[in-house]
Amino acid sequence: MLQVPKAVQRTALEIEGWLDLGCAEHALQKLEALFALPGARPAALILRVRALVALGDFRAALLDLEEVQDFDHDPDWRDLTEAWCRKRIDDLPGAVQCMERLVARTHHSAIGHFNLGCYLALRGESSRALDEVSLACGLDPSFRAMLADESDLESLRHLPEFRALLDS
Question: Engineered SS bond to 24: which of 51, 62, 93, 149, CB 3.0-4.6 Å?
């Protein structure tokens, strides 16, 4: 649960519930109460980012993410979410930059290395992409199960090293 003033905790929980149910439109409608209280703005922004991402409004989500940066919130979540949005607006250099920032800060982040590998593969940087995906699988072997179906890694499928990673 996000930190919010006691007066709007129930509203914040309701908004999270709508998001968990996949009803981002309902969540957005309820956000006004959170934005009305100054102490609730960080939580309201984070919840709105989640709703906007769910609705596919990645540019609007990026605007809110800029402001979230000013608050003491999980920087890994912020970088992952920003990269997700940047990829979807065809800003692969920006997505790569977010993941590089994340893995520089959190070296053991398997999801950070995996996503960095995906974005690098999309940019045609096969060698570096393979290194990042391999590192992710070493940090968390459950990522191996995603290799076969991850379309972002299509450019790596012909590489013997990638096939070996699939088979290991």
Answer: 51
